[in-house]
Amino acid sequence: MSTQSKTRNVTLTTLGNIKANGEKFACMTAYDACFASILSAAGVEVLLVGDSLGMVLQGHDSTLPVTMEDMIYHTQCVKRGNKGALLVSDLPFMSYASETQTLENAAALMRAGAHMVKLEGGAWIANTTRLLTERGIPVCAHMGLTPQSVNRIGGFHVQGRDTEQAQAIIEEATLLQEAGANILLLECVPRQLAKTITDALSIPVIGIGAGPDTTGQIMVLHDVLGISPISPKFVKNFLLGSNNGIPGAIENYVKEVKDGSFPADEHCFK
Ligand code: KIV
């Protein structure tokens, strides 16, 4: 493993400058200190302690069973290994259902080491976003496919394919930016929709299954390493092309995100 970290204290200003310069940044999920160290040393700018841990670590079939205790524990682990990446932690299912809960739970994640919290939803999280950001807690709003709503959506499907739904996503993304969201994450939306939103917003947009035109890309660690039980269309196994094991795979991911070669056409929804 490289001992020299390529990532030095990434902040929201760093990400804003990357967007302003027309460049790209790399994000990845991390759940423990060891991988946090490898990923941040390889140049991943944003580490997400994702509630996907419920699926990839705990073996559940959704993210719904993940608790605040789980998120606090894994955030503390990632913080210990992190070498300068921006650390984002997910507020899990039903942890931001009321104002009191939201403030207590977001504060707990920040005390555990997060620099920012992520929550899923559209217009209905605008007030929550304002509540948090006005109190000094940066917010990443997660739209498109929102896995905590899998039972309402009826599965893990691409979102925004018809004009009406696409228009609603554009309007709600703008509303969330106005409410103070500092980053928008778009999951599983058509490439053109992600480009329209990225161009329209002043905040950085991170994509997963959203094509190459967003400011940043994010992948689930286990998908990048080819060890997830399922492999959706937007996933690429970077371990296959690595000549330096896991650190090499992560370095290749960072390089391909930054030079725009990942995601390629075959990873996009049209
Ligand atoms: O929980 C998670 O890992 C996520 C990513 C899929 C973006 O939200």
From TrEMBL:
Pfam families: Pantoate_transf. GO terms for cellular component: cytoplasm. Mg(2+) binds at residues 51, 90, 120. InterPro entries: Pantoate_hydroxy_MeTrfase, Pyrv/PenolPyrv_kinase-like_dom, Pyrv_kinase-like_dom_sf. Binds 1 Mg(2+) ion per subunit. Keywords: Cytoplasm, Magnesium, Metal-binding, Methyltransferase, Pantothenate biosynthesis, Transferase. Its EC number is 2.1.2.11. It is found in: Cytoplasm. GO terms for biological process: methylation; pantothenate biosynthetic process. The active site is at 187 (proton acceptor). 3-methyl-2-oxobutanoate binds at residues 51-52, 90, 118. Pathway: Cofactor biosynthesis; (R)-pantothenate biosynthesis; (R)-pantoate from 3-methyl-2-oxobutanoate: step 1/2. One of its GO terms (molecular function) is magnesium ion binding. Its cofactor is Mg(2+). The keyword Lipid metabolism does not apply. It catalyses: (6R)-5,10-methylene-5,6,7,8-tetrahydrofolate + 3-methyl-2-oxobutanoate + H2O = 2-dehydropantoate + (6S)-5,6,7,8-tetrahydrofolate. Belongs to the PanB family. Catalyzes the reversible reaction in which hydroxymethyl group from 5,10-methylenetetrahydrofolate is transferred onto alpha-ketoisovalerate to form ketopantoate. Homodecamer; pentamer of dimers. This is 3-methyl-2-oxobutanoate hydroxymethyltransferase. It comes from SAR86 cluster bacterium.
